[in-house]
């Protein structure tokens, strides 16, 4: 009895062993078959001159259905290739074959970043229209805005890498122009002029808010643009000088058109500001606007008010005019006008600097672990240190630039923290202020927004635009609750 039981047990173990061995042999044969098939496929690909990684995989009937993957499986599928794997480099079609592979990759990355920025800006435009519909829509809009801010900083960093890489490589890579030879970017920047319809392309990048009255376009016969034609003659003859070319930003088709309009705007601003009432209104509005931004940033505006009043008093003295002109001339400002000094030299340059802030300041503003008071104190120290060095190089210790530095020292920490910090409410206010200023600049350079027919008519239209944009910002600032 026991013998039969023992024999039966032996037979069962033998059967199990045979089954396991058979499965193992079949598995090994299958693995060897796949290995030899891959080697044969790779050899065939190399013989044909085509990397195996670029050949189309075999499509099996059972693979046409969509498979569901767990998060862990998806994560493993998205892991980066190992260091010993070879990934073929596909050269961008618009880049010259003489461009080194490293620089070509950077240029393609820059183009991709710019295209992504463009897509997100369109998404943000749509979200802005419905952001007040619910908390969810508002949070989504704020999140997209945050991503856009970081993406623009990333784009600036990539641009710097492209420029530095091209110039630093010396004889191996040549200059930046050689690196970009043959490369045509579809969008060199957010405000590139892509068509004759410059006004609409401007609004594509800086969409007006839903509650804003943008007015109607003007329809003026070209023959009536007498002032503009005069400016065009001056610009063509090379008689119009300016500190910085801004044809792309102002949506002008050429530097000649930009220079012609600068000539007209200088004449119009001079006429506009002869009115003492307008000068006082502008000074009061600018003082209130920056002071309110400081209040929203929980900072005391009194030091700013004092610095601002001192600047107004200094500029109002007739004996200081020659000193102001000499100081500004040393900074490239060729004409003391509203456009050259306030808009171009002060505001637009400040906005340009915010696109690429010093790494020390940016790391502080975006640090979520530091309190607002600690951030403000740190930024104030950095700004003070920077201005101290700048003051040592001044021509006049108590001149126009010195007074400008006094204002900067009081307002820059709050403004910088507002634009670059983590407080979404304050950042929205600062960005709204920036957008209105930039939109005002583009409007006054647009033949369909202001009349370049005569100096007086252009001055009146500029004042309407300036008054409208200023009131919009002041209303926005006053409608938001100031934190206690």
UniProtKB/TrEMBL annotation:
Record's keyword terms, sorted: Coiled coil, Membrane, Mitochondrion, Mitochondrion outer membrane, Transmembrane, Transmembrane helix
Location of region: Disordered: 47-90
InterPro entries linked to this entry: Miga
Transmembrane spans: 15-32
Localization: Mitochondrion outer membrane
PANTHER family, sorted: MITOGUARDIN (PTHR21508:SF5)
Keyword Transmembrane: yes
Full protein name: Uncharacterized protein
GO biological process: mitochondrial fusion
